[in-house]
Amino acid sequence: MSRLDLKGIGMTSQRTRERLIQRLVDQGISDQRVLDVMAITPRHLFLDEAMAHRAYEDVALPIGFQQTLSQPYIVGRMTELLLEGGTPERVLEIGTGSGYQTAILAQLVGELYSVERIKPLQQKARQRMRQLKLRNVHMNHADGGMGWAERGPFDGILAAAAPERIPEELLRQLAPGGRLVMPVGGATQHLQIVDRTNEGFETTIVEEVRFVPLRPGTVR
Ligand code: SAH
């Protein structure tokens, strides 16, 4: 787990951030660890300047390359589902994007392995991790649908892009006792949880969501 270094980072007013956290609570986010971390993580750092003034609204925002920074509600929801029942030591994140979800997770888990297919997004996210001194984040430029076999198995897997079906490879890289949280589907998507037990895999459908599609291959 890492601690944020906020020296020299302009934060918006405490009240603006508190309002966002209250909104998350109102929508049912209840894990205090998650709320605490979201309250201190400067979301505006993960946006280009033109968008930064909207950073504390509970909406998804564009980050270029037709991708979006996830809505705070869904970041909070997925994070609390991943942490339910304990603190995962090794976590795989698919779709680093801006790195916002990455920064939240890095403060709550042991080691975080984050895969992104679009190189320029990954480079910016990497800088942000350095700026925040989050040292337990390991990044890979690759197709996250294949997981990150060399670093697995993982106690937790979380994805911010939706495949039509959960790739077998990800299930293989889930450790016994581990949990996967990801959106699945096409025109209609649902957030799904897969728990790996000693008997096999247990799937739970959580709620309808809207994510960018998980796409094959990489972009330089
Ligand atoms: N949590 C991120 C979400 C970014 S949007 C944030 O809040 O900023 C989803 C990201 O998944 C995009 O950056 C997209 O490029 C990436 N992505 C899509 N398919 C992928 C794949 N197969 N492997 C890795 N990343 C992928």
From TrEMBL:
Q: Which GO biological process annotations does it have?
A: methylation; protein repair
> What catalytic reaction does the record list?
[protein]-L-isoaspartate + S-adenosyl-L-methionine = [protein]-L-isoaspartate alpha-methyl ester + S-adenosyl-L-homocysteine
* Pfam families associated with the record: PCMT
Report the main location listed first in the record. Answer: cytoplasm
GO cellular component, alphabetical, reads: cytoplasm
Active site residues per record: S70
- Which UniProt keywords are listed? Cytoplasm, Methyltransferase, S-adenosyl-L-methionine, Transferase
What is this enzyme's EC?
A: 2.1.1.77
In the UniProt record, does the keyword Aminoacyl-tRNA synthetase occur?
A: no
Where is the protein localized? Answer: Cytoplasm
Keyword Transmembrane helix on entry: no
Q: Name one GO molecular function term.
A: protein-L-isoaspartate (D-aspartate) O-methyltransferase activity
Q: Name the PANTHER family on file.
A: PROTEIN-L-ISOASPARTATE O-METHYLTRANSFERASE, PROTEIN-L-ISOASPARTATE(D-ASPARTATE) O-METHYLTRANSFERASE
Q: Which family does it belong to?
A: Belongs to the methyltransferase superfamily. L-isoaspartyl/D-aspartyl protein methyltransferase family.
As for what it does, the entry says: Catalyzes the methyl esterification of L-isoaspartyl residues in peptides and proteins that result from spontaneous decomposition of normal L-aspartyl and L-asparaginyl residues. It plays a role in the repair and/or degradation of damaged proteins.
Name of the molecule in the record:
Protein-L-isoaspartate O-methyltransferase
Query: Which species expresses this protein natively?
Result: Halioglobus maricola
Q: What is the lineage of its organism?
A: Bacteria, Pseudomonadati, Pseudomonadota, Gammaproteobacteria, Cellvibrionales
Gene coding for it? pcm
